[in-house]
Amino acid sequence: MSFMFCECSKLCYLNISNFITDKVTTMSYSFRDCSCLDDLNVSNFNTNNVTDMSYMFYGCGNLKKLNVSNFNTNKVTNMSFMFYGCSSLKELNVFNFNTNNVTEMQGMFYRCSNLSELDLSNFNTNKVTNMSKMFKECSLLNQLNISNFNTNKVTDVAFMFYQCFSLKGLNISRFNLDNVTEAKDMLAGCPLNDSDSLNLKKNLESLRSKYDVDNERLKQFYNKPKDNFCVCF
Questions:
Q1: pTM for the whole structure
Q2: pLDDT tens, 78-108?
Q3: Are 20 and 48 contacting, i.e. CB atoms less than 8 angstroms apart?
Q4: DSSP reduced 3-state for 62
Q5: Which residues of 141-170 are buried (b: 16+ CB within 10 A; e: fewer)?
Q6: What is the CB neighbour count within 10 angstroms for residue 17?
Q7: What residues have CB less than 8 Å from 228, skipping those under 6 apart?
Q8: What angle do CA 121, 222, 216 make, to 5 degrees?
Q9: DSSP label at 225?
């Protein structure tokens, strides 16, 4: 199903409720840039054999309803940019997603600018290596539960929470950044409280000590804020 309806930007109605998807292995780019659709019923999709959901709903900026709560994601390894630009969605239930085999979450919720809360407390991120831009520009997001995230294998967190202006009480106490090599503007625009900042600073100090102090990628953490929203350590 890769690219099946990709860039069907004038398609405003689509009935796929009777699709038989039992043997489908990839759904990447399936509905990319279907920018006219405001409703899409994928609740009956059988995703038991799907391994790739990257860019699946990318650019579906007019979608107001999307029910993916029944998706079986046991075999999925790639969820990068899955919901990128779904800027009209006010709610998104991914609580039941099984992410045990996922390695890529880059840009997964990037520009979901109307979401106010996301519960990812059940996400298993043990195998994830890329979380860059994951929540970038989720400007209305005020509740984000990522308290159980395992970041031991993550190498890229650049722009992860960039311009998440509304976040409150973000719990990043378990973040391990030992393997991170790219983290530019990870927290720019994110109003963390003092305890969160202190905890992350300790992780970053440990990280920085492993590299040359002049390494520009790591110095980004310590740059003075360019505006009132940036977080400085």
A1: 0.86
A2: 999 999 999 999 999 999 999 999 999 999 9
A3: no
A4: coil
A5: beebbbeebebeebbbbbbbbbbbebbeeb
A6: 10
A7: none
A8: 100
A9: P
